[in-house]
Q: What sequence folds into this?
């Protein structure tokens, strides 16, 4: 009887830990979504709200860390349970970073909104954010349903994100060359795109952690890709190859 | 399963009457349940009425058929299995996504509609992990902590497809411990609003150029070119082209908006791509001839089935094949091929042998209004929406589009369909 009772509270503790991850995940998803929405529509109020929300994620991360340490000290878990707890610490770290990146996008909103920009500038950023958010959602859904099947796919989508980022980088460069008045906004947008790309990387990190939690193995290493924007050079003016 | 109970053994009238008495209560309860569920979910009671009628009809008809087995069972046992079974069947019969969960938030049961909308959930999955939106989290937490609070909440998902639901929950039975969570699709009403705003934004932006050009020519025709018959003919031709372009643009925008407005749900109908592709190639043969392209086919023998919506898939392959004919016309031929892949996926590839697409554009060509080359696109009467429509339809089908291209050699667009389930 006594034993069962102990087991049950342990399960409850684990469950509440993972639920907190779910909560953090929901917050991070929402923050990124709203940050990009604010950026695209030039909504500075929404951007301020996103910046304020980040504190919440920081607090949750600390809380999860403390809770996890207490559980480890008290229960001395093994194998699957230990992976679960260590995984929760890792995932919460990644989610907190995602929140930071979302906040950074929101922070840039006023600077971009100051000079009203053409809608075409934002299309690529929206596409990139949709991709990154889809990836994050897939990964967190895999964490919720404990299925390693779909995790392999996240790597493909990470590659896709990198490809879109590189293409977007080139496009923004073209706009800056077309008209120097675009430079301020486009520079900020390049950083926003970079942030989104890194959100994708964090989602991939989470995918690896989730894979480890579920299977007990590390994901087979194969990540050659990387974004190729470091190799992109601006075509000289008058050259048609840079035309979009 | 309610039916079983309402079928008294024909030989014992006394017991039958007594049973009917209790069953009347069950019937009434079940009817009330249907009514509450339906009204609560926002229906008008019509569905519930139908279900109740069905229930009563089957209750009236079944005694002769199911009577014999029931004789053996004792009434209490019978009542018990009825209760458990009817819950499952009732939940499975609900058309909207429905979850049953316990007081720790673990999913005990998800009906087919839920699996279709949100993916499979193994029993024991935590609801708070599955539905992470902050307001949803608060809502579930509130319900679990037994608090009095809002009975429903708005839940929206933005990726991969935009969806909106009104979610309601209530405890099952008197003893708290089990709860039901019901999703009512609100996407349509919300999307109509969004569609209006989106449509105006996109349309005004994209229509401005042709409109300005038409206006300019009207001015010229009224002024300097008033008496120049040759110029007039020329200008009128340009104006006709521009208005045709506006018409195409509006058609495409409307078609995209209509697609986005459709309620979410994976198509389940089986479509034979063999016939469909033949038909599409046939319908475009005239256009291909004009562009100087021959359409070659390399299709497997016999039916090549995928789950999908016929009309939507026709649109997908029409768009892809039309693009291939338009932008790859310099290659002189276009190849339509289909094959089953080792993974069980079914792939249809449309290959052209034209100039190809520069690598940096590849990841982005499905974006709305994204054009690799504005001039070529305009000259070919492109609207910049064709591939967005393709992508949208394929996302709904759980299918993927992959594009390969080499400069100077051509491009190939491959659609990968998931294997047929069951």
A:
């Amino acid at each position: 009887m006594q034993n069962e009772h102990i087991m049950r509270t342990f399960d409850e503790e684990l469950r509440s830990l993972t639920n907190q991850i779910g909560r953090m995940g929901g917050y991070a998803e929402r923050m990124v979504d709203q940050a990009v929405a604010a950026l695209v529509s030039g909504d500075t109020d929404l951007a301020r709200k996103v910046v304020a929300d980040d504190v919440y994620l920081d607090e949750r991360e600390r809380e999860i860390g403390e809770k996890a340490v207490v559980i480890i000290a008290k229960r001395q878990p093994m194998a699957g349970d230990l992976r679960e707890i260590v995984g929760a610490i890792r995932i919460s770290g990644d989610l907190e970073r995602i929140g930071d990146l979302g906040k950074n996008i929101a922070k840039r909103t006023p600077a971009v909104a100051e000079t009203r920009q053409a809608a075409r500038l934002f299309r690529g950023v929206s596409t990139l954010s949709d991709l990154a958010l889809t990836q994050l959602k897939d990964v967190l859904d895999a964490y919720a349903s404990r299925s390693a099947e779909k995790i392999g796919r996240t790597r493909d989508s990470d590659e896709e994100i990198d490809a879109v980022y590189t293409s977007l980088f080139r496009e923004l460069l073209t706009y800056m060359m077309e008209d120097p008045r675009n430079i301020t906004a486009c520079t900020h947008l390049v950083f926003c795109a970079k942030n989104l790309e890194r959100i994708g990387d964090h989602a991939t990190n989470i995918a690896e952690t989730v894979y480890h939690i579920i299977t007990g193995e590390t994901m087979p290493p194969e990540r050659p890709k990387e974004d190729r924007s470091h190799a992109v050079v601006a075509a000289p003016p008058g050259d048609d190859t840079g035309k979009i | 399963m309610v039916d079983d109970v309402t079928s008294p053994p024909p030989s014992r009238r006394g017991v039958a009457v007594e049973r009917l008495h209790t069953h009347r209560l069950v019937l009434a309860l079940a009817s009330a349940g249907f009514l509450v569920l339906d009204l609560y979910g926002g229906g008008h009671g019509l569905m519930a009425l139908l279900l109740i009628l069905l229930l009563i009809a089957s209750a009236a008809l079944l005694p002769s058929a199911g009577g014999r087995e029931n004789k053996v069972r004792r009434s209490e046992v019978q009542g018990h299995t009825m209760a458990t079974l009817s819950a499952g069947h009732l939940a499975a019969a609900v058309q909207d996504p429905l979850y049953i969960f316990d007081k720790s938030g673990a999913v005990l049961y998800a009906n087919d509609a839920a699996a279709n909308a949100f993916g499979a959930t193994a029993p024991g999955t935590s609801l708070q992990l599955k539905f992470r939106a902050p307001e949803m989290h608060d809502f579930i937490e509130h319900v679990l902590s037994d608090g009095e609070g809002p009975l429903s909440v708005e839940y929206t998902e933005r990726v991969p497809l935009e969806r909106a639901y009104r979610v309601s929950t209530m405890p099952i039975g008197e003893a708290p411990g089990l709860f039901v969570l019901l999703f009512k699709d609100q996407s349509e009403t919300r999307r109509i609003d969004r569609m209006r705003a989106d449509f105006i934004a996109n349309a005004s932006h994209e229509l401005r150029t042709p409109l300005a050009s038409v206006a300019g020519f009207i001015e010229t025709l009224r002024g300097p070119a008033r008496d120049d018959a040759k110029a007039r003919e020329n200008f009128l031709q340009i104006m006709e082209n521009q208005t045709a372009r506006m018409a195409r643009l509006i058609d495409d925008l409307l078609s995209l908006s209509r697609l986005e407005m459709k309620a979410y749900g994976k198509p389940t109908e089986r479509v034979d791509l063999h016939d469909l592709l033949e038909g599409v190639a046939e319908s475009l043969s005239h256009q291909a001839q004009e562009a100087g392209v021959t359409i070659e086919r390399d299709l497997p023998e016999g039916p090549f089935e995928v789950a999908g919506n016929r009309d939507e898939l026709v649109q997908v392959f029409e768009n892809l094949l039309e693009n291939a004919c338009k932008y790859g016309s310099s290659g002189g031929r276009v190849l339509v091929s289909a094959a089953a892949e080792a993974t069980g996926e079914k792939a249809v590839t449309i290959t052209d042998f034209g100039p190809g697409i520069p690598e940096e554009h590849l990841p982005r060509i499905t974006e709305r209004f994204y054009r690799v080359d504005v001039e070529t696109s305009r000259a070919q009467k492109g609207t910049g929406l064709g591939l967005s429509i393709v992508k949208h339809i394929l996302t709904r089908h759980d299918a993927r589009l992959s594009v390969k291209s080499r400069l100077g050699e051509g491009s190939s667009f491959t659609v990968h369909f998931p294997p047929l389930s069951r």
Notes: Residues 237-244 of chain A have pLDDT under 50 and may be disordered.
